[in-house]
Amino acid sequence: MLHITDMHIDLGYVTGYNKMCGTPLCCRVTDGPAPNASAEAGYWANVDAPCDIPLRTALQAMSFVGEKDIDLVVWTGDNIGHNDWNQERAT
Question: What pTM does this model have?
């Protein structure tokens, strides 16, 4: 069995951009380049910053999982990005 939860893929993720931008979601073009190396968004993702993961990380994970003998996959949680200001509620 494989349990996948809360993937939160960010199609706007940019490696090297500011991962400590001060908003709920960083690592994007709008956050600008990182001011120093310790603030750079990593290639695969960041565990120490408010960034969703880049598409390549999700694809690599699914590629790895695809090589395994798994009988059951459970996908839970939410997947929507943390960029709430870009989401729209239908009225």
Answer: 0.82
Please tell me the distance from the alpha carbon of residue 78 to that of residue 54, in angstroms, as a whole number. Answer: 16
CA distance 55 to 62: 11
Residue-level pLDDT, tens digit, the chain, 91 residues: 999 998 899 999 999 999 999 988 999 999 999 999 999 999 999 999 999 999 999 999 999 988 999 999 999 988 777 776 666 656 5
